[in-house]
Inverse folding.
């Protein structure tokens, strides 16, 4: 058998392609007319904060210095987004394309590796299929995980997922997001049939059987005038920090919004196959090559455990060792995520 090495150029396009999610607001009882709801805007406000950071040992031993610091105001300018005082419901809308060709690279400079990779993907599709992955993606639409902090504390959360054909909504599934758990993918009995149909549509999109474009609209009843949470911008070059905003929120043409990357991260939070998943109590994590969770500063798929994406992919493609079903799901989900995975020079 000819020895095959990983291609030095190996890239995959993402197959779940969401748009930015725009915010609007209205009354819960009027959500059937949400297309006419006014947009949620981002505005600035200035606040006078107090000194609350951890003090050095030297400062802790000098009460006079602390008193002097407290007398100096901590002035800040921040962005904020809120509902109007006469609206109690946040509407978040985005579209999602589900693309075929999962597992087939967009760039690969080794014909031998490409041929072996195609065989591997075809083996997975024939023997396993995209059914389990599609079901988990469908659950993350139905449970409104993509709302992130906007989902927390909401009195009611409803998600409507519609299939778009020729520019028109041809079928719609409605879910009570609060009935779904964020810690597992067992659907409530009341939503099983609709979730099964939605999962089948996503599966057909991933397998390339049909063109799939979904419109997703979520409604979160949070209360009149309550604050809502768009994505926060990362300002890399602040220059002179004096007088600059300490928090900048994302907006599209002055409309508060969530980044498409943040929506994608929520949709691919399906990895319950990482080592010690039952012991961490963390629940599913986003599909990443090393199982990284940046909010915790931890990677749950360590190469030392031979549980990372690169180790599993190489064993499958190069060594022709078929992984366990859970590992196979994880590898395919990472290829659906997309990225550049070539051999480091």
């Amino acid at each position: 058998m000819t020895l095959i090495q990983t291609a030095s150029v190996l890239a995959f396009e993402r197959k779940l392609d969401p748009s930015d999610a725009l915010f609007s607001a209205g009354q819960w009882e009027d959500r059937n007319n949400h297309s006419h709801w006014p947009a949620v805007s981002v505005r600035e406000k200035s606040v006078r904060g107090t000194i609350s950071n951890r003090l050095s040992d030297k400062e802790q031993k000098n009460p006079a210095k602390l008193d002097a610091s407290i007398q100096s105001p901590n002035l800040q300018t921040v962005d904020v987004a809120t509902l109007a005082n006469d609206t109690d419901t946040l509407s978040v809308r985005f579209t999602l394309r589900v693309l075929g060709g999962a597992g087939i690279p967009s760039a690969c400079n080794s014909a031998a590796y490409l041929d072996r990779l195609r065989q591997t993907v075809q083996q997975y599709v024939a023997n396993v299929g995209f059914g389990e992955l599609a079901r988990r993606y469908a659950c993350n639409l139905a449970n409104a995980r993509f709302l992130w902090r906007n989902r927390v504390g909401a009195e009611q959360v409803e998600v409507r997922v519609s299939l778009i054909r020729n520019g028109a909504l041809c079928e719609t599934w409605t879910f009570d997001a609060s009935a779904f758990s964020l810690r597992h993918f067992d659907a409530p009995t009341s939503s099983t049939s609709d979730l099964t149909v939605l999962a089948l549509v996503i599966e057909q999109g991933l397998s390339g059987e049909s063109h799939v474009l979904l419109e997703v609209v979520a409604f979160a009843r949070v209360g009149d005038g309550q604050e809502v949470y768009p994505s926060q911008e990362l300002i890399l070059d602040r220059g002179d920090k004096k007088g600059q905003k300490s928090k900048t929120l994302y907006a599209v043409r002055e409309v508060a919004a969530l980044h498409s990357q943040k929506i994608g991260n929520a949709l691919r939070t399906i990895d319950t196959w990482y080592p010690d998943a039952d012991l961490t109590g963390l629940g599913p994590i986003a599909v990443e090559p090393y199982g990284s969770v940046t909010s915790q500063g931890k990677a749950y798929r360590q190469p030392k455990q031979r549980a990372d994406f690169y180790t599993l992919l190489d064993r499958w493609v190069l060594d022709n060792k078929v992984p366990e079903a859970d590992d196979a799901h994880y590898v395919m989900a990472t290829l659906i995520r997309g990225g550049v995975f070539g051999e480091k020079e």
